[in-house]
Amino acid sequence: MHEFSVCLALLDQVQSIAREHGATEVERILLRVGPLSGVEPPLLMSAYPLAAAGTIAESAVLEIEDAPLRVQCSRCGAETPAEPNRLICGRCGSFGTQVISGEEMLLASLELRVPDTDEAG
Amino acid sequence: MCNVCGCNITPSNEHLVVASGKHGHTEDGLAAVTVLESLLSENDHQAAHNREHFGRNGVLALNLMSSPGAGKTSLLEATIAALGDELQIAVIEGDLETENDAERIRAQGVPAVQITTGSACHLDAHMVGDALHRIDLSEVDILFIENVGNLVCPATFDLGQHHNIALLSVPEGDDKPAKYPVMFRAADLVLLTKSDLLPYLTEFSPTRAERHLRRLAMEVPFLSVTTREKSGIGSWVDWLQAAVQDLRLQSATGETQSPAVQSRDADLHGLEADQGHTRHHRPHAHGG
C-alpha cells in the first residue's frame, strides 16, 4: 500500500540527511519493516529504483530487515511470536499483550560517501 | 528525547545502531549514520502541528475510518441531532469525488469542509492541515474527520487527531477485524453499525466479531449502534461526552492525547509521540 509514496518520503529523508553530512552519494540504506507496518518489503524494493532515479541515492543498495512479530504479555510476562491477526499471548492466551516488534517501518541507518575535507593531524 | 544523544535506542533497534557511534565510519571509509526514524516522519511532523492547533483551541479531533458505506456520514448526522445543541461540531469530509457528504452535514446546520482527493485513497496530515485553514476552530468542541472509505490505507497516516474510531457494519461480515488487522489495531473505539439489521443477517455474530478484535490484543470498547432507532447511538454519545471531558481535563494539566497506535509507534521507534519536531536536531559529523 503506497509503497511508492513511502519510497518518495524515504528519499526526502535520505537526501536531507545526505545534505547535512555533505555527502556526494548514498551507498546503503537500511530499513526495518514489520508485518503490521502497512507496507510490504517486496513492494518497497520494486518501487525504490523508480523513486530514487536521478537522486543522490539512485545507486544505493536498499536493504530491508524484516522485523519479526513478537508480543509481550502483561499477565504472565512471556515474550512470544505472533501472527498479524492473532496477537494474544502464546503462553497464557491473554489479550493483554503489547507488540514489541513487528509494527514498525523504520529508516534505521545510512552509509554515505562524504568527501574527505579534513586536514591530517 | 532526541536523535543526537542516542537516547532513542531501544532493545529492539539497538542492533541497527552503527557500532562506532551514531556517525562512525564503515570499513571502506563511508560515513555511517544512524537515523532510527519512521518512514512517515514528514507526515507525522505535520500531524504534530495539527495536534498542537487542536490543543490550542481546545478541540477534540476524531478520525472516523471504515469501508465505504459502513455508515460514517449517517452516524455523524445522528450525532449532530443528538449533541448539536450541547456541543459545537465541525466536520472535515474526505472522498475521492463529490461534495455529497459535506452537503449532508451542512444541511444539519454544521460547518463542513470537503476534501476531494482525486485518486488518493486516504487523507494525510497535509490535506487536513490545509482544510483547517477553512475552519474557525475557536468555537468548536468536536472536529470529526470522516476519512476516505477504505479499510486499508487510512490507518497508517496520522492526521493529528486525538482518537481513531473504526466502524464495522453488520452487512460486512463478522471476520473483518481478522482480515484487516492494521486498521482495527489503529482504533481507540470500534463501532458495530447498522445493528438494526442483525435479525435479518443471522450469520453475523457480534460475539465473534468482538472475539476477532480481541485476538488483535485490542481491549478497546466495542459498541453496537444503529441510526434507525431513537436511542440507537446512546453508547456512542456517552463515549463522546466522556472524551470531551477527558480532553478538557488533560488540557488543564498540559497533556496531549494521541491515538494509541501513535504512542505504540513511538515506543517501537524509541521516540516520544510527536517526535516529528526533533527531526530538526540531526546528528552532525564531527570530522574525520
Count of runs of 4 or more consecutive helical residues of chain B: 9
The tally of strands of chain A reads 6
Order of helices and strands of chain B: EEHEHEHEHEEHHEHEHH
**Largest beta sheet of chain B, briefly?**
7 strands, parallel
Helix content of chain A: 10-25%
Give the topology string of chain A: H per helix, E per strand: HEHEEEEE
Strand line-up in the sheet with most strands of chain A: 2-1-6
Order of the strands making up the biggest sheet of chain B: 5-4-6-3-7-8-9
Which helices and strands appear, and what pairs or packs with what?
The complex is a heterodimer of chains A (121) and B (288).
Chain A: H1 3-20, E1 25-33, H2 41-52, E2 61-66, E3 70-73, E4 79-81, E5 97-101, E6 105-113
Parallel strand pairs in A: 1-2
Antiparallel strand pairs in A: 1-6, 3-4, 3-5
Chain B: E1 23-25, E2 31-38, H1 41-57, E3 60-65, H2 72-83, E4 89-95, H3 100-106, E5 112-116, H4 125-132, E6 142-146, E7 163-169, H5 176-179, H6 181-185, E8 189-193, H7 206-214, E9 222-224, H8 234-253, H9 260-268
Parallel strand pairs in B: 3-6, 3-7, 4-5, 4-6, 7-8, 8-9
Antiparallel strand pairs in B: 1-2
Describe it.
The complex is a heterodimer of chains A (121) and B (288). Helices cover 25% and strands 30% of the residues of chain A. By secondary structure, chain A is of the alpha+beta class. In chain A, the strands form two sheets. Chain A has a three-stranded mixed sheet with strand order 2-1-6. A three-stranded antiparallel sheet of chain A has the order 4-3-5, with no helix packed on it. Chain A is elongated. Classes of the chains: A alpha+beta (121), B alpha/beta (288).
